[in-house]
Amino acid sequence: MARPDGMQTGSRRHVGNPLPTLATMLDSQPIYPVAGAYVLQLHRDARTEDGHWIGRIEHVASGESFEFTTREALVAWLIAHARRMRGQPDA
Q1: Residue 22, class by beta-carbon neighbours within 10 Å (0-12 exposed, 13-18 middle, 19+ buried)?
Q2: Residue ranges in the chain assigned as alpha helix (H)
Q3: How far apart are CA 83 and CA 91, in angstroms?
Q4: First CA to last CA across the chain, in angstroms?
Q5: In this predicted model, which residue has the larger pLDDT, 58 or 28?
Q6: Which sequence spans correspond to the domains of the chain?
Q7: Using CA atoms, how far apart are residues 53 and 45, in angstroms rounded to an integer?
């Protein structure tokens, strides 16, 4: 069902992002390439609202993963991993 702003009801896209066009679907350099995709799994005991971060993150393309127990460790690994994937040295 279309809405006045052009979004479809039930769309997973963020509000304000247009639906993909044929040109963007055929783009050889997508905005969100698979090489930049990660899966984040929070542990059943994680309580992020209380600052209790426990989980696992996995890079989809390489399968590399990291188990974390703090938000800071998660963010540090993600930044370092993304830099390595781009061929940049760790800071």
Answers
A1: exposed
A2: 22-25, 71-85
A3: 9
A4: 47
A5: 58
A6: 36-85
A7: 9
